[in-house]
Amino acid sequence: MPLSRIYKLHISPDRKYVKVLKNLLGFVPGNLSLYKMAFRHKSIALVLKNGSKNNNERLEFLGDAVLGSVVAEVLFKLYPYKDEGFLTEMRSKIVRRANLNQLGRKLGFDELIEFDKKAINISAKHSSLLGDAFESLVGAVYLDKGYDFTKDFITQRIIKPHIDIHQLELTETNFKSKLIEWCQRHSKDISFEPIENIEGDNDKLFSVQVLIDGEAMASGIDYNKKNAEKIAAEKTCEMVGI
Amino acid sequence: MPLSRIYKLHISPDRKYVKVLKNLLGFVPGNLSLYKMAFRHKSIALVLKNGSKNNNERLEFLGDAVLGSVVAEVLFKLYPYKDEGFLTEMRSKIVRRANLNQLGRKLGFDELIEFDKKAINISAKHSSLLGDAFESLVGAVYLDKGYDFTKDFITQRIIKPHIDIHQLELTETNFKSKLIEWCQRHSKDISFEPIENIEGDNDKLFSVQVLIDGEAMASGIDYNKKNAEKIAAEKTCEMVGI
In sequence order, what DSSP letters do the residues of A143-160 get, joined into one string? Predict the structure, then answer.
């Protein structure tokens, strides 16, 4: 065991925190301040002298991108005969905010995140603090250990034990029916209205607008009308928080 | 010079193609079939026996993700004091389809892409074949050489010589004024209408809908009303092809 590892786990004043992280991550973190940053929500962050904010939002930006790339490769290799439409849909199923929130909860992030407990209810079902922190953690691991390590971490430590990809493949998330059911439950009228069709270089683009009780919600665009509806429905589900 | 390199550059029946790629990429490609695939547009691709399509769309999916991740890191490190909103905006300026198309043209992709010349006009200003192929190429380099190599390739061979990041930072793409000007030029009425405001856990979300001649175009959502308008304007610019 190298000395720095012994120091971090047994001597350093942060040794308790290092052990918690080691249990979570499966490895001893190198640069501890990155991980502390990953779990610092903007609600308690200070604005530093140089004008930057000492919270996890920048790491979330980076981690979101790295996670998207790793998941893209996992799917690309897992499904060698599926087209990019299928891959895109599978990825969005995996990295949906609701899933990442759930994942953060499973991993015990509610104990790790520093946030303003008076202002925020982290137990709220749709609290995105947990999913945001998961992405930030990916950013921290990437900066600390590099891409290949992060890829292994995500595949071995996150996807394998926590995400059943083939199950996700089967459980088609039908956002359109989900949205229609939600509207029925809340006695709201819903309609999918075609809006301007755009003539592209080669193909015809369809645009669809979701209206709920006559109010415009999200819209979707695709070369296929059904897909445009699906996109609009998915975005509207995000908007209304279902 | 290793034997395989001598073979590829001087003896192989593909030696001419290998030299073209070497000039473009700055290195001798390993797995040539990946690069051939990257330049094969769906308009001429065959459907293989297993149902998969022999074209660049899957590589584009992967390359888009890898490119997004590399550009995220470049910006994260280049701007240590800027917040994630700035980083997100800068990235979308860099990887906008119009920019990638222009990049593909600069790099001479029009000579390399295989496509159905009868059906498609690759010179058309908005032809996305070139940008799509650029992303596919990134996917091919990644599978051939790994992440760190691809990161070097993108930063040294693409960003440094072809993309002036600081210039992009200054030339704020004001999609709202761009859109308003376009509407004036085409004698169309434009308005930005607030739609349902969503009460989140902590913050208030604003939704804005763009209407052109009374028809709903794209919408935008953000915690800040101005940003919601900006997002809606940018998406509408993409829709109408400006």
Answer: HHH-HHHHHHIIIIIIIH
The CATH class that applies to domain B175-240 reads: alpha beta
Domain A31-170 annotated CATH 1.10.1520.10: yes
Nearest-by-CA chain B residue for A81: B52
- In chain B, which segments carry CATH 1.10.1520.10? 31-170
- CA A165 to chain centroid: 15
CA distance B95 to B91: 6
Contact present, B54 and B148 (Cβ < 8 Å):
no
Q: Chain A within 8 Å of B76 (Cβ-Cβ)?
A: yes
Q: Residue B61: what are its φ and ψ, rounded to 5°? A: -60, -50
How many angstroms separate the Cα of B22 from the Cα of each of B103, B125, B146, B158? 17, 27, 17, 14
Is the Cβ pair B198, A241 closer than 8 Å?
A: yes
Q: Is the distance from CB of B64 to CB of B72 less than 8 angstroms?
A: no
Ranges in chain A annotated CATH 3.30.160.20? 175-240
Establish whether B172 is an annotated binding residue: no
* Inter-chain touch A68–B65, beta carbons under 8 Å: yes
pLDDT tens by residue, chain B, 242 residues: 688 889 999 999 999 999 999 999 999 999 999 999 999 998 887 777 777 788 999 999 999 999 999 999 999 999 999 999 899 989 988 998 888 988 999 999 988 998 888 877 767 655 788 999 999 999 999 999 999 999 999 999 999 999 999 988 887 667 888 888 888 888 888 989 887 665 555 556 788 889 998 888 888 887 778 888 888 998 888 777 77
ipTM confidence: 0.78
Helix (H) or strand (E) holding A73: helix A57-78
Specify the 3-state DSSP secondary structure of B5.
helix
